Amino acid sequence: MNGTNSPRVDDNELALLTDLYQLTMTQAYWKESMQERATFSLFFRKMPPNRRFMLACGQQHAAALLSRLRFGDEAIDRLAGTGLFDPGFLDWLGDWRFEGDIWALTEGTPVFANEPLLEVDAPIAHAQLLESLMMNLVQLETVLASKAVRLVMAARGRPVVDFGMRRMHGVDAAVRGVRAYRTAGLAGTSNVLGGLRHDLAINGTMAHSYILAHDDEREAFRAFARHYPGTTLLVDTHDTLEGVRKVIEIMRDEPKLGVKAIRLDSGDLGELAKGARALLDEAGHDDITIVASSGLDEHKIAALIEDGAPIDAFGVGTQMGVSADAPVIDLSYKLVEYAGTPRVKHSPGKINLPCRKQIYRQVDAQGRYVGDIIALRDESGISGEPLLRPLVRAGKLDDDEMARADDARERVTDAIERFPEDIRHLAEGESAYPVELSPGLERLQSRT
Amino acid sequence: MNGTNSPRVDDNELALLTDLYQLTMTQAYWKESMQERATFSLFFRKMPPNRRFMLACGQQHAAALLSRLRFGDEAIDRLAGTGLFDPGFLDWLGDWRFEGDIWALTEGTPVFANEPLLEVDAPIAHAQLLESLMMNLVQLETVLASKAVRLVMAARGRPVVDFGMRRMHGVDAAVRGVRAYRTAGLAGTSNVLGGLRHDLAINGTMAHSYILAHDDEREAFRAFARHYPGTTLLVDTHDTLEGVRKVIEIMRDEPKLGVKAIRLDSGDLGELAKGARALLDEAGHDDITIVASSGLDEHKIAALIEDGAPIDAFGVGTQMGVSADAPVIDLSYKLVEYAGTPRVKHSPGKINLPCRKQIYRQVDAQGRYVGDIIALRDESGISGEPLLRPLVRAGKLDDDEMARADDARERVTDAIERFPEDIRHLAEGESAYPVELSPGLERLQSRT
User: Fold this and answer.
1) In chain B, which residues have their Cβ closer than 8 Å to the Cβ of A16?
2) What is the ipTM of this complex?
3) What is the domain count for chain A?
């Protein structure tokens, strides 16, 4: 098993991370000389029950990776070993480079059901080869960003920090997820590699084990604060308010330790924060802030704030790390056009929108978003801001679009605030924000 | 962004995938010369609401990786860049090799709340450095195996195949998850890299896009079956039973195509399977089997079988791929002993079991499991099969234990069948299977 216990997936193996049928269908297209251009649309059919919008994320990130996807020699050898593929096809696959176009929402754009997050226009085999990995990459970041932004909204300006690496689904989710968190507006992460890679501040406090390994809590606080002046001390190992008193004592003895914050990680966080705040203030430490963690989600954070709990920052892990109340979206990557003609599967009760499309976000005179129109991409006369932008052209990544994705974090808050207030509600329910079809798309859809 | 869009995490970066406090606490232990041995216990406090047992998975896999974890030069440089660490400590970290012991359940062992999945005994800094990544790795495989085994149980001997790669959380979950699926007894996967790496059969059918890209469904079937004699054809793109009739026609014209199966992927799967079966049988094709997919979970599979649906194999994706009804377990890695003395955090309403432990699984005369006893590891006089086995000793992996993990798949079904019937029920609820504390552990716990 030694060969397989590393979670490393090299770039030259990544093309094998696909569903087998993508490769067998691609070989079939190759054998049948089917090389016409196809359009595939990536979208989800319905909002998850606990989301009023999704924050599209991962499209630029995935496109950057997929536009340079290759089947390396070792990948080709392993496919040859399956006995399913002709040598001629494997030669073609070894030379394959993505030659198509990708139009995509910029990361950090709020998106609703049936709106394409991206569309791929390419010779059919090229578009098919991207499907499985594109879906995996875009879904992960979109699911995590869409959950994280709810925590940011709930905290109403107070910093929210990711503590969830240990309970995320594997190594890649833990690293790449931090990118989604950055876009969503988190203030920091405890995850060292994720923070370093994706340029989010790395934060850390201490664990109960550090306190327990010392015979005396006060000595543990003093030792840690001497190693790290200006640190955050975890006060709830034995008795929270006793812990706060010990922090006050070590600060009285050695003010230069400059303890910056205390952290509560169990019990009734609201009551304990009030008690801790009173003790700290009474001792003249109104500059020491209070960080709370322990099974928090957006509803608990909103309730704590509503209740006036004097908590200055929140650490969140488990619920956010897997987006526990909506860990998956029903993402589809559907063929919508081939050889210039619309193609849609007949699915009773399901909407399948044919052809290449554009989304127009309507803006009123005050700059507020008042509704989306999904239209045919080349349909004229539709007002509003077009949301799908060319990201890859003939296999080449657009550098400006990539740079826009890097700045996504700066635009998210503004974008969300321009929507009607009900998309920002945390309670279960649907937003009344209207998403409509254009006349052209409506006509085409009823025809196909 | 080009430097960071690959999901590759090299082995020499992997040590940075941790929470910052693990590194700051470790430096604090180093500065304080705290080198006594500590025991940390990995367990979960309560069963998720929809699980009657969890299938422990990933411990051997994680131990193999963690026993050779290193902070490479680049990792050390990046840590130096944070300004938090002393040069002397970074030298120590660069030379660090795990020197401790790990006792663990063999993968594929059913496990219940408060039972350790593994325990690490090591100088405290060593045990602390494993925490975050160990939790991430073990949780993922345990969560996925525990969901997958429910689908296997629901299918009552019919093959269950993983189609979920596209909706799993990132690259690592998609690859490593297949290992958990293999342990849980899945028959195959559509995931090429996952199947190749973790030795599970790779299966594939075709997508609606292939049918839609052809002008005629019958011609699409014929072309695909000629490329792949003995294949599975997807019959529901336009009208399922019409699709079945077309399969019968192409088989009448060219029997050597040897179509092996048809796949249903939408609509009322039970009714359509009955209709398809009748058409196939009437045409003399009782050897063509029926594969069903489309939003399946264990409850839908059980209901289809209960209803007599003539479905021979199931393809499952979304619900299984993220373990949607229980995507996370409340896994803890707690210090339980340091310098030879028990250490536990005081947590009202929570059980924290001190010291090194062993789990004994009691067997009756018929070989049935009748209850577990969690005991102190060196407590004598407890009958039953000891479940925690030495896997790493002084940093060295035990090859026999690793080999046992490779065979886990073969033991899972037998193990599950030896439990009382109620652990195999799929409905929400708790099993009455008793998990008790030994007299020695009970005494120690009430004392600490």
Assistant:
1) 192-193, 196
2) 0.96
3) 2
